[in-house]
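Record 1 of the preview.
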Amino acid sequence: AHYDFLVAAGAKALTTEFTLPDEAIVNDVGVFLQTVIGLEEAFIGAYIAAAQAFAAQGQPDLVQYAMQTAAVEGEHRAHARFYALGAGLITESPNNHAFEKALFGSVGEAATALTDLGWIDGSGATLV
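->
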């Protein structure tokens, strides 16, 4: 349903397939949790970048949508950090940010980061 809304607003998917850059992500709980935390932080940054672009375009409905989705990604990160705390992988609070980081200047920068990390067009197993 979210994707349909974005397409109706003129969005185009950069990819519909991802690649698994390292099989340890699905075979090692610690690697999995650290990876999920990192990916959620990247997704939060991507949605913040999208919200900034939508604001510059005068699209308040899309700003709201991007920020609502960023909030969900923040909850995902907090949940992953909760399990990482229980596994002894981290020592800080699972909900450790008062303000989210704007990691990227554009959504394209976020896509480039995922490509550089092997999640898009990587050499690992394809995930659809």
